[in-house]
Amino acid sequence: MARREIWKPSRRPLEDWENDGTDREWEFSGIVGEEIDTFGVKRYEIKWKDWQRADGTNTTWQRDMSDMSDVQREWDEMQEDKRLEAARRNTGVKVRLEPGQVWHEDATIEMARGYEEQYREALRRNLKLYARWDNTLKSVHSDSDDGGQRRDGGGAGDESSDSTGSPRLPKRKRLRPSSDRTSSMATQPQEPRNNPPRPVPPSRPKPTPRFVRDSPSSDDDDAMAVDLTARPTRPLPRRRRQVVRSDSSPSPPRTTFVRSRSSPSPRHMTLQEQWTRMAARAGAAAIYFVNEVNAEEVPPGLDGFRYCERHYIRAVGVPEPDEQYLLSCECELSCDAQVCGCQELSDIVDDFGDKVFAYTDQRQFKDNLSPGEEVIECNKNCSCDPRSCPNRVAQQPRDVPIEVFRTEECGWGVRATSDLPKGKVLGIYTGELITREEARRRTGQSKSYIFDLDVHEADDDSVEEEYAKYSVDSYRCGNWTRFINHSCEPNMRVYPVVWDTVPELNQPYLAFVTTQTIVARTELTIDYDPKATEEHRRSKGKGRRILPEGARPCICGADSCRGWITI
Ligand SMILES: C[S@@+](CC[C@H](N)C(=O)[O-])C[C@H]1O[C@@H](n2cnc3c(N)ncnc32)[C@H](O)[C@@H]1O
């Protein structure tokens, strides 16, 4: 196709750019394509200026676009407009999107699954993989009107394309290309080492070691990034060159092996795919279910469960925020807490009494809230950039994949697949937003999943409350945070944060943030009742074994365990 004169697609997502011994940087030319894997995670095909491989291909695949977020946004918007326009033209009906919905996604994921199924089938039959896969890719690449399944670079109505279908993007500063080594569609072996100078990735987080099969030798080794039936054996040896891990952005979302004692059951796979797909709709990383302890396929009680990564589902009678009362800022470049209009109601100040944000420039939570305070992030009426604003952190999609795993004694719990820095915001507690009266009425299992939103509530019950009280129940809908267990020595905490709502409505989100650096696959825990812990400390541990009414024994195992929890 004519488009290949502009770029020749790469089929080598598994390249290693880190050990090529050069520091040469390459000019970024533009995004030329995208694809979505079976989990709904998107990656982009990048073209670099004046660079190509020995075979003439000159693009790389990249999932972490943090270095080029403005270009990514431009591309995403352009593609979305194109698809919407195509839909409008074809159906003649008005297309309305729910927040966070990407309308072409379901079809795309289904087709990506089809490819993966073909791949697995080939494995089962022990066929020479590359012959088949090459054919599949050839047919995809030679198909100029592919409906957006694999590539979106040159569809009909692409006004931003030149005559050959290549998107025109502005010139970018010099960056180093990097390659996504973990795509589920990746099936090609690594390029031989003696090729011309290769691009070097920008210094960004080094992925945690990925599990590989025992003898990485044959043609198809390293080829499959997603094998849900494979058993991990040992991690890859550490590479020589040390890449400094930026605390603010741990390893990018990646496809991992699922570790389980036996092959994952269809129920397991379905749940994992559903949750990951729903998370991906909100732009968030994958969610895996792992049970290395017993035969339980999936956590109990999830039949009919509705996954919502980033918003509440309001029960009948719970008011919606009125957008006209949102205080917003008019910052054009970077927000500054002292002048940001949306910070008028914020109480967070530094030692000199000047308003400051709750986050560092690396988007880590500073833990500078006093009791009764909440973080006010920039909102949908603010003029600042939704992705780069330093005061939009809890509202960003989660970039860390999560494993919901079976603990030895405490049901299911959660952990991250990568190391986490202190101050990393991982997500918010979602579910059904209900009144406090309704929360009190609810009984049984549901009780275990109810979180009170009590930022403005007085300690003393006799004090008249100014605000309506709400709670969040994640028994029937919610996200991965419903599986966070309690520990008396937790490694995360919760803080209240608002955006797109007025603080007075008393419906903040509860964000989970790490309070220490956490090694990958360590269980993530919070203290369910920090006030009780404080009292326990004050009483110097007296009454440790006396269970308050309605409490149950705590089995967190911490040295300083207070002995009980209340839900
Ligand atoms: C929000 S759920 C946490 C997820 C839960 N483990 C599951 O499998 O669904 C809270 C429930 O987990 C259990 N739990 C969490 N932490 C605990 C702890 N430290 N000691 C005892 N039970 C705990 C209790 O049954 C509690 O009601």
UniProtKB/TrEMBL annotation:
GO CC, alphabetical: chromosome; nucleus
GO molecular function: histone methyltransferase activity; zinc ion binding
Positions of the UniProt region annotated as Disordered: 1-21, 138-269
Domain of life per record: Eukaryota
Basic and acidic residues compositional bias, start-end: 140-153
Ranges of compositional bias, category Polar residues: 257-269
Protein name as catalogued: SET domain-containing protein
Lineage, uppermost ranks: Eukaryota, Fungi, Dikarya, Basidiomycota, Agaricomycotina
